Amino acid sequence: MSGQVVEEATLRRLFEAARWSPSSANQQPWRFAYAQARTPAFDRFFDLLVEGNRPWCARAGALLALATRNITSRGEPARTAQFDAGAAWMALALQGSRLGLVVHAMAGFDHDRARVALDLPDDLDLCCMIAVGHPGSLDDLPERFRPRELPSARSPQAAFTAEGSFSSFRTPPAL
Ligand SMILES: Cc1cc2nc3c(=O)[nH]c(=O)nc-3n(C[C@H](O)[C@H](O)[C@H](O)COP(=O)(O)O)c2cc1C
Prior knowledge:
This protein is an alpha+beta fold. It is built from 5 helices and 4 strands; from the N terminus they run αβααβαβαβ. Flavin mononucleotide (FMN) binds near residues 105, 107 and 108.
């Protein structure tokens, strides 16, 4: 990423995409906290990242944290909240990609410290943090990160689809 700030209006376009995501009973359990680059809040978000995420996030234009409300409006456990938030994240990521931005989710942050630093209410659970930025030059990345800037592979469909039941996914007992 280039280090250029992602403007509030651009963030609003990303959140608008997330807003239209489907969710169970239309509960819309996703909650985003965000910090634009070059603000005190950004430093607070950045400080939560694990070492491995810091070098490439230093030039992010904004950092986001995504949490879900873990109870429904009826006070019941929100069983699909993480699934719904996953849909919202994907919509946001696709919108960002369409706008030519880098959008990258991260589970690599200190979840316990984040609860305090981000003042998370008890009925919210953190899912991930998200780096958003304008594309930068490969030269700005520390050398060890450069090989990762290539398309990733995926397992073939046979590894995750089966007709009729899930039995073929049963893990063989350890010998
Ligand atoms: C929930 C989630 C958490 C992730 N956490 C990290 C992370 O902490 N650090 C990182 O470098 N990449 C992280 N990633 C990126 C994945 O490693 C990456 O999406 C995956 O390896 C596939 O690569 P691709 O997105 O380039 O196709 C995360 C992705 C998701 C969806």
